[in-house]
């Protein structure tokens, strides 16, 4: 009977039984990834590829062509937010160099509103914590050079019990526009009964997508629309038709097992990401404890190279130089913000797993993808001990046989010579990462044996197999 467990709550057929969860008991905090068969994944991948490559499915309304970079309040503060915190955070983003690195959104998550709407039916900001009003706060943050985001829910209530937008989509979109917001994160709690909705999650989200389009046209200011239905209804197949990003799993936690589970799940649906629409791996947990330095680097590298939105979620007044250096790695950010290639990296080898086997603790270890400047590789050590990681260059479909490649280390920021046929990284730390950019450097040296790097794939014109 049990369907899934989220946030310590057992959920049966849409009903929630509290199990020691905080007051915002609807919110899923731990991603749950189930085992999928090869046939199911193959079908999903085929559909995702069709959806992602069909331009009719892309929501191109002039914003969010590239992944959003910014800040969100939830991971660090949950409901403990006010206007002073938001303004202070925006100023810190500027003084710490985060704005200069490209982080240009300051987003408010749940808990900003009064528990009841006005007599006219409008959402109203909390009169104590946002006493000067959202209009003034937006004006102040915009004056610092940022854009701003707000939060709502597709059900009766938000995940923390504040007014949701079901039945008030146009009204609430108008409120958010009047307040001056540029971005909406839209959650999936407190879903009305089927007899009321008469539709699934797709239709429920389409209502707000239509409202945002209508209001955006009226105000001549299109919204960025971030869908957050946690991957319940295969959102990677339809999200691009109405939004710019879509959460694919439950909420992230600052532990390696949570990161590994999210990476594993998303390794099978990378084809859904492209310009104007992308898989959202959830907000960053860098700086919130629970991760080693190497795990933090792996977290950021995977999120950035998979072209997820990058939303910082830590107390910036206490951020360490190490974490700040990760968040501002310009070479990694440049690939996330590549204006020529919008696609995510994808696995070309699953490491310790048989191909296409789901394993939440040991996701794919060998990844690659094209960029405007070459082919990017991510080597992810999912083991609890150091590892030597080696691969043949042409295992990646984006590499040419018979060529040599210059090697750029995107974390050491060094040029590391030339790779011919193979690359080996020694002593990759536990849960650590290697990020490389390989650029074509001409023909490989003559006279190499065997004449094929992957010897069993080639045949001489006289019919003789190489090495056989």
Description of the structure:
This protein has 468 residues and is of the alpha/beta class. Strands 10-9-8-7-6-5-4-11 form an eight-stranded parallel beta sheet. The radius of gyration is 23 Å and the shape is elongated. Residues 1-56 have low confidence and may be disordered. It is 26% helix and 21% strand.
* Helix/strand/pairing category: alpha/beta
What is the 3D form?
A: elongated
User: What proportion of the residues form beta strands (DSSP E)?
Assistant: 15-25%
Number of strands: 19
The amount of helix comes to: 25-40%
> For the largest beta sheet, what order do the strands appear in spatially?
10-9-8-7-6-5-4-11
Determine the N-to-C terminus distance. Answer: 57 Å
What is the CA-based Rg, rounded? 23 Å
- Uncertain runs are 1-56
Mean pLDDT: 89
Sheet with most strands? 8 strands, parallel
Number of helices: 12
């Amino acid at each position: 009977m049990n369907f899934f467990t989220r946030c310590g709550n057992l959920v049966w057929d849409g009903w929630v039984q509290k199990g020691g969860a905080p007051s915002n008991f609807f919110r899923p905090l731990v991603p749950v990834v189930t085992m999928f068969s090869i046939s199911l994944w193959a079908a999903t991948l085929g559909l995702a590829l069709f959806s992602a490559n069909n331009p009719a499915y892309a929501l191109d309304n002039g914003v969010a062509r590239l992944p959003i970079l910014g800040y969100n309040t939830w991971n660090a503060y949950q409901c403990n937010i006010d206007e002073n915190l938001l303004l202070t955070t925006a100023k810190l983003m500027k003084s710490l160099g985060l704005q200069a690195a490209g982080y240009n959104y300051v987003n408010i998550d749940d808990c900003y509103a009064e528990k009841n709407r006005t007599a006219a039916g409008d959402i109203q900001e909390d009169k104590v914590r946002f006493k000067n009003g959202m209009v003034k706060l937006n004006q102040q943050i915009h004056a610092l050079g940022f854009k701003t985001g707000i939060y709502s829910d597709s059900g009766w209530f938000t995940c923390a019990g504040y007014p949701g937008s079901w039945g008030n989509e146009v009204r609430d979109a108008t409120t958010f526009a009047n307040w001056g917001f540029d971005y909406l994160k839209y959650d999936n709690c407190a879903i009305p009964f089927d007899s009321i909705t008469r539709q699934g999650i797709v239709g429920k989200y389409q209502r707000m997508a239509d409202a945002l389009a209508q209001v955006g046209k009226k105000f001549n200011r299109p919204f960025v629309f971030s869908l957050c239905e946690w991957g319940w209804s295969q959102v990677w197949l339809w999200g691009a038709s109405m939004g710019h990003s879509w959460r694919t799993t439950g909420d992230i936690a600052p532990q390696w097992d949570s990161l590994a589970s999210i990476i594993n799940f998303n390794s099978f649906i990378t084809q859904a990401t492209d310009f104007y629409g992308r898989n959202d791996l959830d907000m960053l947990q860098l700086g919130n404890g629970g991760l080693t330095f190497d795990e933090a680097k792996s977290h950021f590298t995977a999120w950035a190279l998979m072209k997820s939105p990058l939303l910082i979620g830590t107390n910036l007044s206490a951020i360490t130089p190490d974490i700040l250096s990760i968040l501002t790695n310009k070479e990694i950010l440049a690939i996330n913000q590549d204006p020529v290639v919008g696609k995510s990296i994808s696995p070309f080898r699953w490491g310790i797993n048989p191909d296409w086997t789901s394993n939440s603790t040991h996701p794919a270890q060998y990844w690659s993808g094209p960029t405007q400047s070459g082919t990017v590789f991510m080597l992810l050590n999912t083991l609890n001990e150091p590892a030597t990681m080696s691969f043949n260059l042409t295992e990646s479909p984006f590499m040419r046989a018979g060529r040599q490649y210059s090697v750029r280390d995107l974390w050491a920021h060094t040029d590391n010579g030339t790779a011919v046929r193979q690359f080996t990284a020694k002593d990759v730390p536990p849960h650590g990462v290697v990020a490389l950019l390989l650029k074509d450097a001409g023909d490989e040296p003559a006279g190499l044996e065997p004449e094929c790097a992957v010897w069993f794939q080639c045949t001489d014109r006289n019919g003789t197999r190489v090495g056989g």
